[in-house]
Amino acid sequence: MAQKCFICAKRKRVGRQSRHHRGVAGKQWLKRAQKTARLYKVNLHPVTINGRRMVLCTKCIKKLRREQKLAGEETSKTVAAVA
Description:
By secondary structure, the chain is of the alpha+beta class. The chain contains two helices and four strands.
């Protein structure tokens, strides 16, 4: 399964995470908090719409539910649990 939303093409993003480190001020810049790379993953769920199975992020699922396109057609237990 691809890690990508079918509608908005949202996918994994790379960011930086800084660790908490006390005493950064006052000539201690050599001991400042380290920044490490990390992945921010998308919150994806499998959904069936009009007999077609696709993977959507939660924002797109909420958007479709507001537009009533998912009403009565949800067969995925994930979408039913969110409701």
